[in-house]
């Protein structure tokens, strides 16, 4: 199977020039699906830190790029919404987010904000010893108590990149509930943020629907449960407010 795809069919959320070249690298299997943007594309097309794929590979091999607190060496590893990318040698830290049009963008953040990550709980499982494991949407798993539910969001520490100390400690929790604030991460409303005013559950294979209200624009819209990503309680979480 090819490691590349034609630029013309690359996801629009990457925001790359479609006709600059014929091909672009394909996202490798990993924490995000095929819509995740490869680190190599991010380094070359979005930041300009690398001029070509060869330079991007050298930067990654030197362990100069941290993704969610860990050195990234795979040029095709996907980046998705709310991933934290740090380049310590440049003193630069970024959060990958969606803009109002559903495009992936890089928001520069202070170093302190790069030490935590907002995560969505995909589901829960019970592991050996009766302990509860939270399975997060970007591929990580952590052990926690049973107060958290699927579709909730949690804020976790990313720990020391060298020792891994204090990694994945939960420091905040945003429940999936009416009155709390969520971002839409799929569908035609992708990138919008609103307050949940109704959760419509259906006793069938049809996805549950969620109705949200954007108070700033006085706009009401609807999406399916799968596209919800909680970002705050009564308002957007302070560490995200300036960049959403």
Any overview of this molecule?
The chain is mainly beta and 244 residues long. The chain has three domains: 4-109, Structural Genomics Hypothetical 15.5 Kd Protein In mrcA-pckA Intergenic Region, Chain A (Roll); 114-174, OB fold (Dihydrolipoamide Acetyltransferase, E2P) (Beta Barrel); 181-235, SH3 type barrels, CATH 2.30.30.30. It is 9% helix and 39% strand. The chain is built from three helices and 19 strands. It has helices at 39-46, 53-61, 238-241, and strands at 4-6, 23-25, 37-38, 66-67, 70-71, 78-79, 84-87, 92-98, 104-108, 116-127, 131-136, 141-144, 153-158, 167-174, 181-184, 193-200, 209-214, 219-224, 228-232. The protein is globular, with a radius of gyration of 18 Å. The mean pLDDT is 91.
Pick out the low-confidence regions. Answer: none
Taking the alpha carbons of the first and last residues, their distance comes to 37 Å
Helix-strand string: EEEHHEEEEEEEEEEEEEEEEH
**Could you describe the largest sheet, including whether it forms a barrel?**
5 strands, antiparallel
The CATH architecture assignment of the largest domain turns out to be Roll
